[in-house]
Amino acid sequence: MVDLRSQYELIKTEVDQAIQEVIDTTAFINGPQVKEFSIALAAYTGAKYVITCGNGTDALQIAMMGLDFQPGQEVIVPAFTYVATAEVIALLGLKPVFIDVVPDTYELDITQLESKITPKTAGIVPVHLYGQCSNMEAILAIAQKHNLKVIEDTAQAIGAKYTFSDGTVKQAGTMGDVGTTSFFPSKNLGCYGDGGAMFTNDAELAEKLHMIANHGQKKKYHHHIVGVNSRLDTLQAAILKVKLQHLDRYSASRNAVADTYDQAFAGHAHLKIPVRAANSTHAFHQYTIQVAGISRDKLKSYLAEKGVPSMVYYPLPLHQQEAYLDLGFKKGDFPVAESLCENVLSLPIHTEMKSEDQDYIIETIKSFFK
Ligand SMILES: *Cc1c(COP(=O)(O)O)cnc(C)c1O
């Protein structure tokens, strides 16, 4: 699905040097590269503050702690997403309130949003799934009207740009109260282990998020609030600093791969190519098609036999996951999420895709229908 080895080979000299520098100085925790990377990422995204942490799941948890979500309160989250989004809600004693998604763009269905809001609602977590921004203009307007916080889960959409109706352009993760992201190796900006970050434009909140990620301390051994231990390793920050300089090229490569798939499958009777959202660019973390009228799983096994990997993100919606059954939802409650779980198929997409490899993938997919 991804080719991290070829990606590394192309930047080996820079990465190796950055790693060696960290080892030479032995500043493995909170070395200068951590701050340098935060500043570079803030400049890249346009966020005023970037607070790094241990991974994208921690980023979501720290964001909710920083925004003072209280146990018993409700958080609205799409039923079709990676489990991390709901997991931290449950861990903090909050209640995940699922909402169905839009079949074309996979974002939470804003037409259902207000019906999910109760006096207990603390916030909304839109997920920019596969690489496109959710309809942030509508979400922010509803959040403002009801005095709710917005945490954008930007783990799959770093670098995607959203255009508001007044022409303002903002990057994924910088529009809500907090944006969260992950540097898991296969993410669009991936490190060589675990890593994560939060974005915010609020100075006071930035300080609080930083404190929570560091045991709630302002000054070493002075703990103001209950926090966690969630740090980005210096080694990972050094690697990310190098890779950030290549992110625009990475996004362009992903988009070129996506365009080629689009051309190959546009108008196909059984394969629906990704719909491009009107107001967002696409970071193409995943190139996800929908399979119609034939068995998605048969196509997937056929491809596997021919040496073409493909993945199902995600095979089961959150409300049907065993861990969340006690919330009382049942099959049929979120029909779009449920049908997507049966129809979506993500194809290989990465920054160093060779055209002959992609041709083979396309020909193999087409040969299934012959
Ligand atoms: C990857 C991902 C996360 C979690 O990131 P980790 O760094 O693996 O904790 C959260 N949300 C979404 C949508 C993701 O894709």
UniProtKB/TrEMBL annotation:
InterPro entries attached to this UniProt entry: DegT/StrS_aminotransferase, PyrdxlP-dep_Trfase, PyrdxlP-dep_Trfase_major, PyrdxlP-dep_Trfase_small
A GO MF label: pyridoxal phosphate binding
Superkingdom classification of source: Bacteria
Residues of the active site: K187 (proton acceptor)
N6-(pyridoxal phosphate)lysine sites (modified residues): K187
Keywords from the named record: Pyridoxal phosphate
The keyword Mitochondrion appears for this protein: no
GO biological process: polysaccharide biosynthetic process
Family: Belongs to the DegT/DnrJ/EryC1 family.
PANTHER family in UniProt: 3-OXO-GLUCOSE-6-PHOSPHATE:GLUTAMATE AMINOTRANSFERASE (PTHR30244:SF36), TRANSAMINASE (PTHR30244)
Name of the protein in its database record: dTDP-4-amino-4,6-dideoxygalactose transaminase
Organism, scientific name: Algoriphagus chordae
Source organism phylogeny: Bacteria, Pseudomonadati, Bacteroidota, Cytophagia, Cytophagales
